[in-house]
Amino acid sequence: MSQLQIRQRVVSFRPTYDIYDSNGQAKYFVKAAFMEGHYRTRIYDKATGRELGYIRENVFRLLREYEIYIGGNYMGKIKEQFEFGYPRYNIDYKGWRLEGDYMRWDYNIYEGARLVVSIEKKLLAWGDTYILDFENDMDELPALMVAIAIDSARETETNQRNTLF
Predict the structure, then answer these.
(1) For residue 144, pLDDT beyond 90
(2) Residue 51 has pLDDT above 70, yes or no
(3) Looking at residue 89, what is its pLDDT?
(4) N or C, where is the chain less crowded by C-beta within 10 Å?
């Protein structure tokens, strides 16, 4: 079992993250930019600086949709839905499904009956910090991309709610 810790940078226009392994070593970094009518959140290998994948968000939709690409190849998408005034996320990605309370950042991702990753928010941390516990190292990058896409959706929703008044 392995673990990643996502730390969102406190001062940033769009979400920017540093991702650390279970030994506290920087493993990935994430930056978002507006390009060609979409936000692209790019994930890089910290050691080499090489782009590993990106998340493409269409900003001109009422309900957000995030397409996930790894190595330039389309892998799937996450669609935002509303139920009873709260956002929910439908995953069309590797046959995975979300369970739990993602409004409080306490949820799991499953493939069939197999737990892929458990995601929870770390309390009492400077800036948003999340812990991802993986059962299989092969799921690390794909699950990290799903977690970042959901955080981007929640960040956008919070910013829109805070600017309504």
Answers:
(1) yes
(2) yes
(3) 82
(4) C
Q: Are 101 and 107 spatial neighbours (Cβ–Cβ below 8 Å)?
A: yes
List Cα–Cα distances, 40 to 36, 37, 57, 97, 162, in angstroms.
Answer: 9, 10, 6, 23, 23
Conformational region of residue 85, where left means phi above 0, alpha means psi within -120 to 50, and beta covers everything else: left
